[in-house]
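A note from the maintainers: we've had questions about how concatenated examples are separated. There is no special marker in the raw files; a new sequence line simply starts the next protein. For clarity in this README we add a label.
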Amino acid sequence: MRPLIRVAKQISIVDPFFNLRPGSGRYVDTLREILIDLENSPKRQIQFQIHYRTDDRRPPAEFLERHAGRWIDGIIPDGIHLELFEWETDPQGEVFHDRHLLCDCGGLSIGHGFDAAGDHGNALVSIHSYEVSQQLKAKFEVTSSPYHLAQPILSISSDGHVSRL
């Protein structure tokens, strides 16, 4: 992932199970590593998004607004906002299952997902052509997505402030 992260101006983590809550997997560990790479990369304007699927166990937007900044306190570099998108799928529509890192310069799929930080296991990583990564990225644009936003988009700034977009 590092070569894409170090040059991208738009970064989207797509993982239906992504979760910032403590004790819900190693997602924050992976996020921390990505953000460290961004901190050590040439400075530039970056749009950073995380896209995940809703389910009955996810807390409401108000809960995330109150707590998400504290859960990832100190790991977002200055000048970067982390945008959270929670998507609802139509039972008769397209399935939201695959996990990707999608950037303006390319993308890849990660078989196990983004909770695979550390050396505790293996994950198959497949690199996409530029065209495929842009087609996948379009599925997570609010105006063209086959999915529907389940909650308002939340933005977390480097100082931990959370706001609705």
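[label: protein 2]
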Amino acid sequence: MARDTVAAALACPPVARALVVTDDPAAMAALGGLGAERVPDDGGLNRAFARGAAHAGGAPVVALTADLPALRPRELAAALATVTRRGFVPDADGTGTAMLAARAGVPLDPRFGPDSAGAHAASGATRLDGDWPTLRRDVDTAADLAGAAALGLGRFTAEVIGAARADPTARYGDRMQGTVARFDTDTGEGAVLLDDGSEVAFPAEAFVTSGLRLLRVGQRVKLDRDEAGKISRVTLPTFP
């Protein structure tokens, strides 16, 4: 999904460069191959967006999360054309933010998180409600992924889903990885969206066993299972 998001952004005429804020070597290897430039991540979604905007050096900035697998360059260009100073495009549900953009010299001032649409509006950003379905379709759940597929997935996401469907065992064992779709900081329970679009819940015990202090929505994780097939641990993938 990140590769499709970056590829669409770079194919959008107003976009001159793509800055990816990450410390994930595998992600950067894939995204750097598309022409993206890495900005080190020092933690926190809003800090990451602010850090990326700072590296833009005062140029116009558009901030996108990496889960827009159906994004079309023409829709992104149309949305950017409506930004007069600082504006945002709400996600398909209307409460989140799919895009935040600021003109040259205007602080990005990201307010991503719960009810980010309301937070961005309260901060003075203009809400942009055009007909841009592929821009607004972020992916947090299996239903969201199905909605993105109905709009037409980008090449990279379509290839991953096609491979997973062709080999159902790819979701099991040491290869069962996915993206955190939800996480309850109070209970430790949550769910992961696998690469084939399936949502798998994990119990609080799996998080406690992991030794992790926190999980973030959108974070890549690995799921370990016990002999009975129950999710027993949630860990971060390791790379050579």
